[in-house]
Task: inverse folding
């Protein structure tokens, strides 16, 4: 092991954290399931309901703009991006997937703020549905763990 490291359990304690969630409405059945799983996990990890701000935007390309507004507002320990992009018959899938991913990453780097990216990019609806709960939970855990990790620096 490379030096002192807190255990993962310590880093998954969300009791002191303020979390922002941006959810794309496009493919809303999937994004609602992502959001529910994410909320359930945040609450289970001790994040207080009053310390979760949840906004919705039209689609995945708009997620980064809302994340940026939250980052600029300040007061968040971590942010979470939720969305669902399903491959279609045109190049639009690649454009939306690439640009939304780049935007989310840019916010994290520009603001030195953890952003858990749970914008699903799948071949079809079946793949999205199969991932919606696990990825929502994963996003909550990533946000909490990274917020706690950055507090150590």
Result:
């Amino acid at each position: 092991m490379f030096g002192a490291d807190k255990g993962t359990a310590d880093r998954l304690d969300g009791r002191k954290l303020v979390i922002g969630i941006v959810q794309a409405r496009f493919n809303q059945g999937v994004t609602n399931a992502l959001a529910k799983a994410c909320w359930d996990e945040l609450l289970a990890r001790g994040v207080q309901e009053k310390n979760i701000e949840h906004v919705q935007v039209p689609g995945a390309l708009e997620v980064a703009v809302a994340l940026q507004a939250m980052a600029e507002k300040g007061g968040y320990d971590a942010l979470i991006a939720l969305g669902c992009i399903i491959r279609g018959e045109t190049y639009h899938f690649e454009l939306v997937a690439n640009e939304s991913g780049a935007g989310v990453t840019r916010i994290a780097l520009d603001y030195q703020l953890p952003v858990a990216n749970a914008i699903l990019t799948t071949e079809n609806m079946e793949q999205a549905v199969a991932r919606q709960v696990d990825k929502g939970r994963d996003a909550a855990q990533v946000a909490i763990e990274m917020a706690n990790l950055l507090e150590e620096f």
